Structure prediction request, 291 residues.
Amino acid sequence: MTRPRCCTFTNNVRHDSSMVQVPPPLDTALAAVEIALRALPNWDYRISEGIARAVDEVVDPIRSGRWQVADLDQPEKTVIGIRVENLLRMELELERGQKLDLRVAGEEVDVKFSMRGEWMIPHEAFGHLCLLTSFDEQKQSVSAGLLRTSVDSLRPSQNQDKKRQVSAVGKTRVKWLIQNRIPQTSIIGFMASMDLDTRAAVTDSSVSAQQRINRLFLAIKMTPIPETVVHAIAQGHEDWKRRMRKDASNKSSPEKVGYDVLRQSSPKDRKTLKHLGLPPLDRGYCMSIEV
Prediction:
């Protein structure tokens, strides 16, 4: 005889126990890792900027002239995950794990990266803690969270490398440290936010670095811009900072084409921003104003 499934009734609503998902027990190791990471000075800034810098370094717009992840071939895209792992270890000053990528609060942690939020977990990380990281090029945002991999947090099928993808259930169990955070210095993220005509104009290699910088600041006035973007658009010119300043010897310097650049790093410019009633700029940012 088949045993009937257990049902309960609450406020005259039938609840079938076979449909109820039992939440996982408290993971004290995961909690300890989260506490340890959050205790680091500027931990959220260091994580978000580390992820964004890894993407920038692999795309390498300053030397390669490429401006989006889509410009990379598949082997290069794979390198992003390795770079994220290395940069986060250095940025957060963490130990290398014996079996996995990191050792945090005495626990082994594997670092995984995805552009689409579809993380692939290798066999050696099954049952262990993973730091899941991602970069959304269209939203210009990064995310990072902790997950204990388990049977139901991973899809049953595996690829030829015996890696399994984080399941829909697994994604609901991620303990997010940062989610959809806009990094302050991302070159690739900022370029993705531009309209196509502006992006084409500021990356036009047929004109001078000064002309590209002028096009940037004239097209995007009164908007904070990461200085890393200016450096990239200058295509490696060592005097890129000088090209943002007034220069009597330069017939194309900012004040001669109708704008001035205010930089967060300049005490004088910070006073100007305050005098104009404008909000302060974040670290590493600049902004053009009309003159």
